DNA sequence: CTTCTGACA
DNA sequence: TGTCAGTA
């Protein structure tokens, strides 16, 4: 699984809920609720206060947009799940290609190291 | 001062 | 969801 420095930085939890409220126009109540629904995963600091990452903010912003376009939270959750599967598949395809390129795996003809179902 | 959890309308 | 209470 590749991850650029920028991605690592985007995942670092450094924003208090107050800042996230300003950035997303959401109330603390809504942000905490979305956390219970599994949309964002803020970490906690020494004082048990939530600390959000830029990735969390992106997710929250997309929720704000999707809600404006009429989608329910449940529908938004489904969209998230579908995209997660598509990402997994493309990641798996990439892993298979890498294996083919460096001649690892598929040495005994037959099933690859990732089983069937892809491509 | 900011945030947290639990609870009620 | 908003809001109030009592904390940390």
UniProtKB/TrEMBL annotation:
Tell me the protein's name.
Answer: HTH merR-type domain-containing protein
The family database entries (Gene3D superfamilies) matched by this protein are listed as: 1.10.1660.10
- The keyword Ligase is annotated on this UniProt entry: no
Q: Where is the HTH merR-type domain?
A: 14-82
One Pfam family cited in the UniProt record for this chain: MerR_1
Q: Does the keyword NADP apply?
A: no
Keyword annotations of the record: DNA-binding, Repressor, Transcription, Transcription regulation
Q: Which GO terms describe its molecular function?
A: DNA binding; DNA-binding transcription factor activity
Top-level taxon of the source organism: Bacteria
Membrane-spanning intervals of the chain: none
